[in-house]
Amino acid sequence: MSAQPGYVPARTSAPTSGRAAGVPAAGAGAAADILTRPLAQTSLLDAVRDLRRDVEGTSFPLELDGIAEARASRARLVDQLAEHLVPRLTELSAPAVVVVAGSTGAGKSTLVNSLVGREVTAAGVLRPTTREPVLVHHPLDADLLSHHPVLDSVEAVPVDTVPRGIALLDAPDLDSVLESNRESAHRLLEAADLWLFVTTAARYGDALPWRVLEAAVERSTSIAMVLNRVPAASLPTVRGDLLDRLRAHGLAGSPLFVIPDVGPHEGLLEQRVVAPVLRWLTMLAGPDRARTVVGRTLRGALAALRPWVDELADAVQAQADAAAGIAQALDEAVEGPRVEAEATVRSGAVADGAVRARWAELTTRGGPFARLVRRSGRVRGGSRLGRTRTEAVEPLVAELAESAAAVLTAVGVRADETLRAVLVGPGAPAGGPSLLPRWPAGDQARTGAAERAARAWTAEGARAARAVLAGGGGDEAAAARRRDVARAVGEDGLAAAALAAAAGLPEAHEALRTLLPDAADALVEDLRADLVRRAQAQVDVERVGADAALADPDLAADASSRLRLRLAVLKGLT
After folding, report:
1. Which listed residue, 117, 402, 407, 458, has the most CB atoms within 10 A of its CB?
2. What distance lies between CA 386 and its chain's CA centroid?
3. Residue 52 to residues 75, 111, 315, 390, 486: CA-CA distances in angstroms?
4. What is the predicted pLDDT for the residue at 217?
């Protein structure tokens, strides 16, 4: 087969570039994927297949203004690529599909039956009913048509009177009372190589057919017009007016066939009446001529794809821009929960409840901390007493960890509520509400993060206490005091007291000041600041949850680049 203008002959092997079907990546990865195969080695079929895959993988996660139109446009583009362009480029030698289209009662089925010389499709009163469209072809063209996607929705009828190289498709009425018929008609027109548009002297001025024809002109689809049932007396007037309309709609070069009004009749039209149409179809049926028609329609369809893909890319970019707006709104909103988290920690929320009760138990008369410090400030107790106190404070440390985890979890809950509230109501960013279903509840992750942070905080208390007891500096009296505290309280006891003070117990803070006057305040503030940081990190965990909901390739900043790169390759080939 010789090469046609406007395309590179397709290889018989599968495309060598591109990812498997699915949601495409965006950005630099997309560019690398597209550009790994040199343009000189890329066929037009490769480019269209790649484009189809990427269009199929494009989604619109966020509900924005105009999203319904964008989704409908995407679906139509996928249909055009999958049902027409890819099949046609795959097998340019297949018969040209000539769709016989028009309004109700135009005589389409009668024309098809008359062209092939036998009844192959129902005509007359049966036409408004739901039925399968009929595709009539020469028996020897069956193999060439076997992979055409149009066969999925038509009844194929082999008839040896049909010229080889074409297939006549009797489509449902464009204005059928049945929506399914109307949708089928438009879908079949999308898959056509040539339209044989049938109208009548009484209905050629109807608005609907001309709107459909205008869409065909935009795609440079090859069109021929049949003016049916024309009374002899009005023929000059009707034909002249129709020719003027064709010129006005960019169809001046389209063939116009006139079939006179033969009055009431049943069955086929006389052969002489349809002979001009049949001769024209026979002329087109030659392989070279048929490919010329197909090629012209393909080039027009490919040219029409460019603004279509551009619009789709713009819609994808609008999604990315909206995602950026949502992220910015959440970034601005997260500062409030972070400030609130610090205030919650510094208010002593972790010290409330069980922690306060446990400290009271430890410091009451007879408790292990009851007479830890004499009024003179001298540390009392030896290593044996210290071991007893170490065991006694273990429940306090456990309750501090449990209370801290509960407070951190509550901080996360409030942050989650605040961030989600930003996405709805007045002032919400575009697409914000539609992110909420994609943002799963993070209860399990929140609780796990809070528990880990609380354990890490209590471990930090032990590390800080050990560092204080081992620290140098100060005079000999301070060093001796640290040794006394180490023997009497031990690292665990000192850590428990420091954690309780940092959690918000003033009594624990005062005890630390008595034990270690030179280090107590710094120790408590370091541990409190550490807990503040962990509370604010809990807020960040909630913010990261929103990022996970936004982590969609079609919401990436450069999400539209893949489609634009595919289009650039297509332009280079056409």
Report:
1. 407
2. 63
3. 11, 36, 17, 70, 74
4. 82
